[in-house]
Amino acid sequence: MSRYVQRCAGIDGCRTGWLVVEACSNLRDANFRIAPNWNAIASDADVIAVDMPIGLSRNGVRQCEVAARKIISPYGSRVFKTLPRGTLKYAQKDWRIANQWSKENGFGGISKQIWAIRPKILEIDRAISPGLQRRIHEAHPELAFTRLNKWTPLDSKHTAQGLAARKHLLQRAGFTNLDDWLQRLRGTGAKADDLLDSCVLVLTARNLLQRRAKFAAEVVERDSRGLRMAIAY
Questions:
Q1: Topology adopted by domain 1-81+118-233
Q2: Residues in Cβ contact with 94 at an 8 Å cutoff, skipping those fewer than 6 apart
Q3: pLDDT digit string (tens) for 86-95?
């Protein structure tokens, strides 16, 4: 009788969709692919860690984000403040209107960075449910890399040094195919940091599977839909 092999997945958004890395216990056998939208991912992984906000508060303030910024201090700005749920009613072209609405309601401004990923936030929000959160977890690569680097935040992933450090840590963790994958990434619309972020989220998913994961906030909040607002790493 064959033994069931548990699988983990790390997912990060990229310009052309979602970059998905899936693996079993042996990371040398991991694989990656790009899905055009969330529903096309169709992963059968036992645990999925995704770098995208899940659960949106009324005012856009989530304690898991506040705690996450402290963990990676002095680089807390790498964790964006998420959208208030009410801004999902606006079209993508209406950032100025949504930004004004948020300010008028006392929620503060909305950064262009978080607004740029609003379509992906909306994709997950439409697909997720409290029940699915038993398998699909919000995570953050910066927290995952900090943990992997013995609790020391890395240089920015937008620098050659930062990318090299991330690649080195992942290779040491067991991802032996990164050079080949980075070559295959060319022309896909995804960037090197998208791939490396997805890989480190596989390690977060494995921590979740093995009950070794940490969470950015001690008290877990839930939004108006009952979605858990928690960042695993």
A1: Nucleotidyltransferase; domain 5 (3.30.420)
A2: none
A3: 999 999 999 9
